[in-house]
Each structure stands twice: as C-alpha cells, then as structure tokens.
C-alpha cells in the first residue's frame, strides 16, 4: 500500500506541518485598566474624548476601534484625526482643526468626555492637581488648577489614577480643582446642571458615585485584587457592596488591538506595574 492510499491513522499517513497558533497570554493588570478606561466612552456618541495619560489614551483608541466608532479624537494638540494611530504615532488623516481659542469654547458646550488624573481625590470626587499642603504656603507645587473646574462643571469627567494609595485617595483634598458632588450641590443649579463624574479607574479597580449621598463606591475589582487591599489603600471609608464583581476581562480581539495595533511598544506597562 502506498503512502497516498494508506488508511487514516496508519504509520505511513502524512502528518500536517501546520502548527496551531499559541493562545494569547492572559491579560495584565495594565490591560484590565485600559479596558476599564475604554468603557468610560461606551455609548458616548459623537463627542470629543479628552484622555489625559497613557492608559486613558490607549483606552480611548480601543473604544473607537470597537464599541464607540463615532468617538472623536485629537492628535493631542490642535488636529481632529480621522484614523486611530498607535499611541505616539503620527496620524495620517486629518478631519478638522481645533485651535486653542475654539477648544476653550468647546469646553463650555458639554460635547466632551474628559478623563483627567488626580494628585488627590476625596470621597465626593473633589480633585486636586494644584498643590500639596496649605494653599497659602504649599509643601509642593503641582500643575495648577488649569481646566479642571470648567471640565467638571461643563462636561462628563472621569478620573484615571495609576497608583492607588492613601496619599491620593484622601479624606479631604488640600485644594479643590475638579469639582466634586458635594461642592457642586452647594454651588447650586449653575454648577450641577451638567456636572457628572461617571467613573474613577485605578490600578486596583473601578469606582463610581452611584450612592444616595454621592460618595465613592467600589464597583469592580481588577483580578488579583481584594476588597481589603482597596480599603487599606484608600484614605476614607468607601461604600463597598456585599458582592463586588471583577472588572470585565478583555476579549481576544481587544487584547490583539491593545498589543498589536494601539500600543505595540507596551507603554501601558510603564504606567501600571504588573
């Protein structure tokens, strides 16, 4: 009997040389954080994403390439881009021009979803990026108030905090830059009309303010993190439900986009340690 006519399974049957692809490596903590940031823009529609930081920038691109294709992105300066380049790469398609004077006008329209950082944040979502210590004689000078008040009063504003610690999640911020729920309520309808803080994402989990008194609640844990770890890393008492789910796992397609298309250089791992 020739090899060509040998019965299947016989020693002379030719075997295939095709090697099946290796399974993708499990998602890292940084990739869970990227996905959690991307979810901030789910269903946002045709609004400008304003991500500040590497992980939020990767997240905004992931959202645009998957479940929020109408999301608008910039090159980080004055151009609206029509493609979705890798983080740090040059765009090849310009859709519009957004000079500084127009950007200031855009802030007041509410047609953005901002994701800012925070040197300090408290239980009501008040954020500080200006100084540490007494504002009249601070121990450390930081960025300054910048656009935080206008962002939070006029646009949905979420936060990304890559190092969750009691130094960042504090009982009371040293200076209010981004406006939290308690101060917006005290200021009245002019401050509360468009004020919304959807999410806070850290390297430990995802948080929101879906509580009766608008204080911060633990919504999900990144895999490998415990509720007790989050409590110990937080300088105020969090609202913790009886059951806290884990943050959604990235799909194989989402992992491929993160690793091969959006962040092939692995910049996300510099912001969130494994």
UniProtKB/TrEMBL annotation:
Where in the sequence does UniProt note compositional bias of the Low complexity kind? 1-19
In this chain, the stretch annotated as Disordered covers: 1-24
Q: Name one GO molecular function term.
A: CoA-transferase activity
Keyword terms, alphabetized: Transferase
> Pfam families, per this entry?
CoA_trans
Write out the similarity annotation.
Belongs to the 3-oxoacid CoA-transferase subunit B family.
Give the PANTHER family listed for this entry: ACETATE COA-TRANSFERASE YDIF, CHOLESTEROL RING-CLEAVING HYDROLASE IPDB SUBUNIT
- State what protein this is by name: CoA-transferase
Q: Which organism is it from?
A: Streptomyces kasugaensis
């Amino acid at each position: 009997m020739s090899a060509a006519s040998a019965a299947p399974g016989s020693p002379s049957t030719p075997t295939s040389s095709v090697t099946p692809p290796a399974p993708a490596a499990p998602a890292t903590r940084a990739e869970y954080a990227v996905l959690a940031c991307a979810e901030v823009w789910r269903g946002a529609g045709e609004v400008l994403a304003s991500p500040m930081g590497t992980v939020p920038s990767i997240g905004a691109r992931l959202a645009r390439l998957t479940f929020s294709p109408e999301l608008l992105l910039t090159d980080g300066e004055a151009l609206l881009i029509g493609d979705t380049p890798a983080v740090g790469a040059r765009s090849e398609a310009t859709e519009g021009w957004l000079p500084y004077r127009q950007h200031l006008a855009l802030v007041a329209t509410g047609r953005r979803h901002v994701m800012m950082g925070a040197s300090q944040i408290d239980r009501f979502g008040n954020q500080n990026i200006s100084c540490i210590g007494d504002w009249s004689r601070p121990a450390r000078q930081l960025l300054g108030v910048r656009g935080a008040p206008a962002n939070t009063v006029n646009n949905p504003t979420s936060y990304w905090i890559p190092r969750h610690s009691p130094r960042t999640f504090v009982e009371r911020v040293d200076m209010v830059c981004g406006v939290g729920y308690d101060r917006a309520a005290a200021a009245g309808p002019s401050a509360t009309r468009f004020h919304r803080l959807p999410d806070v994402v850290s390297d430990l989990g995802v948080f929101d303010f879906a509580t009766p008194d608008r204080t911060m609640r633990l919504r999900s844990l990144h895999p490998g993190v415990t509720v007790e770890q989050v409590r110990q890393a937080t300088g105020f008492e969090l609202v913790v439900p009886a059951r806290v789910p884990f943050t959604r796992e990235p799909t194989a397609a989402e992992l491929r986009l993160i690793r091969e298309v959006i962040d092939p250089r692995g910049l996300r791992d510099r912001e969130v340690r494994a």
